Automatic annotation (TrEMBL):
Belongs to the metallo-dependent hydrolases superfamily. Adenosine and AMP deaminases family. This is adenosine deaminase. It comes from Luethyella okanaganae. The keyword Metal-binding applies. It is an enzyme of class 3 (hydrolase). Its EC number is 3.5.4.4. One of its GO terms (molecular function) is hydrolase activity. The keyword Metal-binding applies. Its cofactor is Zn(2+).
Length: 373
């Protein structure tokens, strides 16, 4: 059964944000577990937890994640990945993940996760991908049985601090017609540039498998440049530090006059999607150069300048959030309305790693859903 979903309403109109059709591009499988599931899976494998009550455990994750450091933030994943080392654990987590996305109004989601982190109990890389896909398909069946529809694609991820990039890229290509739609690298960004995985990116380019790269979260413009040049990234995971390549010349009461640097210009003009995750960006200190509140986030600047911004959760457990909540927070901070929300979802639809016809179908579903409000 799905966990209860908090209802978020658009200020002024009372419109349910949860009910709006949405697309999730940046959502980590090991960052979206239900606390009760962690408790039950941990009990089954004899794993000690910092808290054994589901509510207390959820609070622990949120507290630990508010460190202001990506490195510290990532340590919470030691707990979640520990209960995702068996076929049963992976299937259950993936199935509930899909259920929870659908309950929040998501009609298409790309779930990213790193198979190399799920091998400690004897599973092979291929077995982990198969287990997750089985869970995804079971979740889709559950959603369909409830009268709704959802599509899901896997983004197979390599850990950027490890040396298995090519092996994981080959894994992704083996499963490209079995649920996998793209490739990602994740983990500690600073000190681990995309070029470390150049062999993987060369292979993926030859195989025409789409790539997104975590960049512009814990490192700046050079990391983003590497994601574009070495990684051939079609999207940027977070990418918000591209704002460092934007110079504000002057502002008046109605306008902001800026100059874009070459990397920012390329990203905007080529419509390379930015997979922003507002709450997570606060927690990890990704926006520290601009402030420590959501209103300081460069999201609105990027949106107003015409960048292809998308809204995501990153890790729903760690940030105690949902896609509806992220939209509500942005609306509160910047005064966004339904038209803005629709623009964000259409940006996401255009940036999925699906075929053109499927992207157009998603856009039609989004527009129709917003027209019904």
């Amino acid at each position: 059964m799905n966990t209860p979903q908090t209802e978020y309403l658009l200020a002024g109109g009372g419109t349910s944000i949860n009910a709006l059709p949405k697309i999730s591009l940046h959502d980590h499988l090991d960052g979206g577990l239900r606390p009760q599931t962690i408790v039950e899976l941990a009990d089954g494998i004899g794993l000690d937890l910092p808290e054994t009550d589901a509510i207390a455990l959820g609070a622990w994750f949120a507290e630990q994640s508010n460190s202001g450091s990506l490195v510290e933030y990532l340590k919470t994943f030691d707990v979640t990945t520990a209960v995702m080392q068996t076929t049963e654990g992976l299937e259950r987590v993936a199935r509930e993940f899909v259920q929870d996305l659908a309950a929040d109004g998501v009609i298409y989601g790309e779930i990213r996760w790193a198979p190399e982190q799920h091998l400690s109990r004897g599973l092979t890389l291929d077995q982990t991908v198969e287990a997750v896909q089985d869970g995804i398909e079971a979740g889709i069946d559950d959603v369909r049985a409830s009268g709704r529809q959802i599509k899901i694609g896997q983004l197979v991820t390599a850990m950027r601090h490890a040396n298995r990039g090519l092996e994981i890229a080959e894994l992704a290509v083996r499963h490209r017609n079995l649920g996998v739609v793209g490739f990602d690298i994740a983990g500690a960004e600073f000190g681990f540039p995309a070029r470390n995985h150049l062999a993987a990116f060369d292979f993926l380019a030859k195989e025409f498998l789409p790539v997104t790269v975590h960049a512009g979260e814990a490192d700046g413009i050079e990391s983003i440049r590497g994601a574009l040049f070495d990684g051939r990234a079609l999207r940027l995971g977070h990418g918000i530090r591209i704002a460092e390549d934007i110079v504000i010349e002057r502002e008046d009461d109605e306008n902001t006059y800026v100059t874009l640097g070459p990397v920012a210009q390329w990203i905007r003009d080529r419509e390379i999607a930015l997979e922003t995750s507002p709450s997570s960006n606060l927690q990890t200190g990704a926006i520290a150069a601009w402030g420590d509140e959501l209103v300081d986030h460069p999201f609105d600047l990027l949106y107003q300048l015409g960048f292809r911004v998308t809204v995501n959760t990153d890790n729903r457990l760690m940030s105690d959030t949902s896609l509806s909540r992220e939209l509500a927070l942005l609306s509160d901070a910047f005064g966004y309305d339904l038209g803005d929300f629709e623009a964000f979802q259409l940006n996401a639809a255009a940036s999925t790693f699906l075929a053109l016809e499927e992207r157009e179908e998603l856009a039609d579903i989004i527009s129709a859903g917003f027209e019904e409000v």
